[in-house]
Amino acid sequence: MIGRYTRADVLKLLGGAVLNAPMATRSALAQAAQVPAGAGLSGPIDIIPPEYSVLDARVMPGQREVIVRVRRNKPTFYSLAMRFFVRRGGGLLSFNSPEAYRTGDFVFDYDVDEIQIPIDIGRDLEGQVLTVELAKPRAYGDIDTLSDPGVSTAAFSTRFARAKATISATAPDVPPLPATAVSRRWNQPIDRAVPADWTCDFSSDLVNGFEANDRGRNSNGAPCFRSSLAHGRMQNNGEVGLYTDPVLYPQTHPYQMINGQRALVAEKLPEPVPYMVGSQPKIATYASPIVSTETMPRFGYGRFSYKFALPSPTIGMWPAGWQLALPHWRWPDPEHDTVEISFTQADPKQVMPYQTHWWGRPGRGAKQGQFVDVHELFSNFKYSDQHEYWCDWTPEVIRWGIDHILTFSAPNRYFLKDPQASSDPNRLYMILQIAIGGGGGNPDLGTYPSAMVVDHIAHYAMPTG
């Protein structure tokens, strides 16, 4: 079995051919993805993304504003990014064309039925032909998995049944939505604060009572943060950083203080350090800071929250807040990347976070994820400011967000066996780190030391009754 599917199911459900299959076939395949009895669900989860359509809009004489509406063809657990642009006349215009003078990025929430795009007719040249067109933003995409042997990208995408609409006096009436439907304006996202009935069962600012060491146990034997990954202090993925501990490696300084807050500091090692990853010798040239809750009680369904600032991001940094299960050889079943940021570019405005859900069986599986163009989706976004990156794991859906904005969601593929049992082996632990190299690029082109200034790492438990 791969997760809750057989391998044959995965090949059918996740292969690229699924998206090209007739809708009846897709529906049948979705129904085959049965959830386990212990998940607390009564039926299957539809893993096939919806199709989106933008509807023609009628403009009346003297009307100054018209609402163009975007809808989807069915309920879903996907929240997907898209971009609109308004153009005049005929012919396809590029995003960089001066004619495509109004654009906007938004996420179509899984729990919203309609997105409204107000068009100012006076501003947008009354009397001329206006067209609103949808596209998947260039900045967004399925996560590239070429570097992950045995792990494939589960096929999904923002798909349009109708990507272009015309504003005219002869447009047909727009079909009404049910009275219970939810509609919002594209630039007025829903506030996604922690649900009121979810309770904080863990929170640390990495200052008060903070201790991290190699064993993840303090001198009294009580759990504390661990200063390494479960399988060791280096990765076999192109990283050149040693996940360090100041006691074991006194030449490093991973845990410092900046203005009363904990700073996780990445730095260049004064001398290279040899290290064995399994039977493979490695050489570490940088020191990577990490804290892990591996030895602490693990977490069930709820919100995983990491809030931090990156005052001076630089090439080669690969900061991340993420969750895993034990034992570590289960990977990729699962890996929940609440946030990863690969600083492969010198200009932070060219760098986008990505958020990912992995599942499968040891060494084999699939993942889905989406890049977040924070510089389009947010106003004046800066990595040097404090931002909360969060992931809500529930039996039906996984939601990702930044601050109080939903950025992505997808059907859940990894379940607790008994949500009410604190001993459930599928519970997760949290990791906050700065990896160096690998997906972060060449750190020799960057400037070190560089820090992550932490506000908190926290979990909010979802009710399980």
Report on the architecture of this protein.
The protein is mainly beta and 465 residues long. It folds into 2 domains: 45-185, CalX-beta domain (Immunoglobulin-like); 199-461, Jelly Rolls (Sandwich), CATH 2.60.120.200. It is 6% helix and 40% strand. It has helices at residues 7-14, 17-20, 23-32, 374-377, and strands at residues 51-54, 57-58, 65-72, 80-88, 102-108, 114-120, 130-135, 151-153, 159-162, 164-168, 183-185, 199-204, 212-213, 225-226, 241-243, 255-258, 261-277, 280-288, 290-292, 302-309, 317-324, 335-341, 353-361, 364-371, 387-393, 397-402, 405-411, 429-436, 450-461. The strands form 5 sheets. Strands 12, 15, 16, 17, 18, 20, 25, 26, 27 and 29 form a 10-stranded mixed sheet that branches. Strands 8-24-23-22-21-28-19 form a 7-stranded mixed sheet, with no helix packed on it. A 5-stranded mixed sheet has the order 9-1-3-6-11, with no helix packed on it. Mean pLDDT is 84; it is low at 1-34 and 139-147.
